[in-house]
Amino acid sequence: MTERPGLGVPREGDRPGSGPVRESARITSLDLVRGVAVLGILLMNAVAMKMGLAPYQNLDAGGSETGWDWAVGVFGEIFVDQKFMGLFSLLFGAGILLFIERAEARVTSR
Asked: Is the pTM of the predicted complex or chain greater than 0.70?
């Protein structure tokens, strides 16, 4: 099966069908940023699983007793909380756009 350069889409005459994108057609930087976003979501979910939802509204509710507790809590609120969900949502939209472009290229190549 041959593919069109950069798209990972079979050429005309090839067996049509769906399947995973070939390794050469993947956008590794998009995959990397998506992985970082998932890890950020996991980090904030780990906090929620350990302490419940109360620390999201009030850092004292999570048992913040030392300066380090406050520093980590404030860092999480400013740089992590909800930021990675937005980033993941943006990347999800980019993935859908790539899916649509590849589907259109597959239809026009027939």
From this structure: no
